[in-house]
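Appendix B.2, paired examples.
Example (i):
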Amino acid sequence: MRNTKPPLSFWQIWNMCFGFLGIQFGFALQNANVSRIFQTLGADMEQVPGLWIAAPLTGLLVQPVIGYFSDRTWTRLGRRRPYFLWGAIFSTAALLVMPNSPELWIAAGTLWVLDASLNVSMEPFRAFVGDQLAPPQRPTGYAMQGFFIGVGSVIASALPFVLAKFGVANTAGPGEVPDTVRYAFYFGGAVLLLSVLWTVLRTREYPPDVLHAFDDAEPLGALPAADAPPPRASGGLPWLIAGVAGMALVYVLGWDRMLYVLAGLPLAYGALRLIAARMAPQRMLPTIAADLHAMPPAMRQLAVVQFFSWFGLFAMWIYTTAAVAQTHYGSSDPQSAAYNEGANWVGVLFAAYNGFAALAAIVIPWMARRLGLRLTHLVNLLLGGAGLVSIAFIRDPQWLLLSMVGVGFAWASILSLPYALLSDSLPAHKMGVYMGIFNFFIVIPQLVAVSTLGVLLGRVFDGDPVRVLMLGGASLAIGGLFALRVARPRAERATAAP
């Protein structure tokens, strides 16, 4: 007899995903306002990507570790829910501190805490869907998460603009964050904590023995569960040498110091393999290294798609405020009324693309049924790329809302289709750690972005941030093309079979 998970009702899925509303509220406030806060506290435009390094780096470190431990956790609150709760508590505290930072270095440090805490909450939510839902319902679960991502982002991104319309001060003295931003962060902290508490208190989890007894505990056609041995240390030496050589080149040639981050990526991977090979195989670091080395083929193919997709997104998040303020409002001075008006309009644009993404989440399943997952992802990423490129050619800022339609489709697709393509490849006993490892392919392009975009802006793009957005648009399009290389899901192959 088959031992399948019982289907959950609409409201049960709603409750288990509701916490994502608050988590995305925090991320949206961060994405739309942190560059503004940094510039207000005295950061030069070319420094901003370096200050953003906290966001991807904390995700790189935190998510696989949290996934590893949550796979092995069982408490009165369950398996994933303790991480939801503690991440939300620390995220709320960071949201209260960030807009009151008196110095740039305090704001940068608070971003580390904020992003790490948001990642502690977010990573188990992806695994939570895999734990609680049978494969036929998982697309619904990820779509529900996408809905709450859209709703949370719309409200959070638009808050400063709305508060300004109600008379809250939108400018402040030198080194002070406007009240519109401060009050938005306070409200966001409350929403984050309360929404995560709702999920923690209104859901339940399967105990490990029950979870592992379901027939979807192992991917279809997979070999019996076994832990892969850590990769050999010798394979880490070329990566280590490449990283050291890259750092030496940056030093000797006097290149921008942010390129040390780029050189540090192969260095870190080589060091991981060398250290893991010398530790007991059952320890955390060797386990993560082994799972990374033995990841499913679909994950390897999706890694390239994710790289170009998230590079484009990060270019947008870092430079849209500067690009719109300079290109459409004629100001690059963060103390000026014109700059802050443009920054508020960017909040509206970010709210708009998230609103369009919520609508796109309804359309994308229909597209996927007719075009397949891979071609649908290509179409949506091409729409997003066109939307970013169009910002350089549209002169009326009101018409930038049209650009956000394409960005919204790309964003909705990025949040759902890669997980749908990957979903049947992950075993239940490693759902958390593989979701954390999959985050590498979101974080690495962000690290590449923060280490190169400032250099490109100053030395290639003549200080014009809208050109960075055009580069981001091209990157989205390339990611879409690589989606065609991903293996077709078994369901699509079975449908196409004669």
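Example (ii):
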Amino acid sequence: MLFPEALLNSPMFGIGLTIIVYVFCELLVNRLELNIIPPFVLACPIIMGIIYFQAPHITYEQYASGASFINFLLGPATVALALPLYRNRKTLKANFFIIVSGVLVATTVGITAIFICGTLFGASQQVLLSLVPKSVTTPIAMDISNVIGGIPSLTAACVIFTGMFGSTFNHKLLELLGFKNDIAIGLAIGASSHGLGTSACVNKSAVQLAIGGVAIGLTGIATSILAPLLLPLLTKLF
């Protein structure tokens, strides 16, 4: 067994393992100049691998007893987005219509695209419904999934994957497509890959971060309203 029993049964195990693995991945990314890959994208599979290969000596419950505290910090971290929102409130007010209309279009396209793709690849109805809220922040996505008949745990996994993919590739794809406007970039990232994707805007632009933060909340609201309305129509058409 890699870890002593006393440590495994302490909340410090989950916290310590998460921090150590994350710092290691950050050093690895900097050392190898893998700037396209955020450290947490590497840290997640490493932690899962440690738990898997050390089972049954290490259980997920033992890890979660401490790591849940880090998960709790997502709340304050989300609230902290209010600071860039306040600092860029004039920009937000000036572009209010663009932001709202952009979120509505992004949500409609996102729901329609994932429904069509899932149908073409032969996904079952329940799996299909679980994929619909993939671009919404996890708590809201799980509630939407439960309401429309999906599997909340599967939805959570899809949300995390979407965020990791977005955090890694969003800026590169938008740059490749020629997008340079911070409002458009922040809106696209916030509406497609929620908080994880938007976190990549921290080192890019305060405006991107502010717009992305607004888009996260509006996309959650829009998806919860549009998903039940669009799904019956999409089911009839496809």
